[in-house]
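Fill in residues.
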């Protein structure tokens, strides 16, 4: 698979929607994840990321402007032991609860589908990172409608064992802006992971569309100790 230039990919797409990057740092020492949200409506843009234990959650920036919290307020990141779950919706909780009952990442999502936001039917994108004894693997999932037909759900899971240093995979909800919004197609895009957490965070935030970007979360997890460093950037401050 061809490696996609993440900087160009973001800068050239005004509305990828919500996106997840999972990978390994260039020096091989860290498991890397990033999650961003974008918005076109006042309701979608009226959000920030806040820390919530070892994870994060979305929160209304101005509660008086929040019209509908469904599909807007959720926990994008939760930690279960040595597993870090990253998603674009409340399926974070579904995965957490399923894996806590010894279900697999894939099977825990069998009870979920794409979002009920006709006519877009936004895909549910999810990621799981497993860091243990200095080893690391990750997987990405997408649940999407059959070309906009809500009667059919298509389920895809992509697994990556012992990922290469400096390499990651990027999945996002939409191919581009539009009405309705076209769902992501194909495999997660292979991208380079370069620099330290500050450099990588800046690359993502600076190249997301200035009008539509809302919030960004980046975490580097030390593969040996399991400790992590993270960055949160909110457009609303």
């Amino acid at each position: 698979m061809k490696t996609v230039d993440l900087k160009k990919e973001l800068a050239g797409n005004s509305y990828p929607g919500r996106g997840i990057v999972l990978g390994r740092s260039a020096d091989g020492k860290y498991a890397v994840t990033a999650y961003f949200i974008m918005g076109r409506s006042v309701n979608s843009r009226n959000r920030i990321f806040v820390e919530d234990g070892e994870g994060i959650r979305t929160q209304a920036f101005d509660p008086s402007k929040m019209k509908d919290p469904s599909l807007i307020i959720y926990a994008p990141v939760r930690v279960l032991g040595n597993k870090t779950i990253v998603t674009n919706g409340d399926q974070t909780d579904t995965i957490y609860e399923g894996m806590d009952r010894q279900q697999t990442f894939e099977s825990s999502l069998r009870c979920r589908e794409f979002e009920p936001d006709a006519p877009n039917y936004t895909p549910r994108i999810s990621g799981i990172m497993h860091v243990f004894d200095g080893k690391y693997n990750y997987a990405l999932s997408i649940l999407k409608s059959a070309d906009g037909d809500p009667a059919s759900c298509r389920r895809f899971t992509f697994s990556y064992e012992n990922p290469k240093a400096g390499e990651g995979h990027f999945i996002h909800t939409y191919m581009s802006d539009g009405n309705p919004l076209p769902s992501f197609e194909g495999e997660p895009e292979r991208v380079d992971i370069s620099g330290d957490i500050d450099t990588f965070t800046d690359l993502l935030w600076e190249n997301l569309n200035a009008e539509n970007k809302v919030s960004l979360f980046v975490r580097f997890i030390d593969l040996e100790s399991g400790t992590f460093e993270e960055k949160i950037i909110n457009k609303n401050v």
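The chain has a mean pLDDT of 97.
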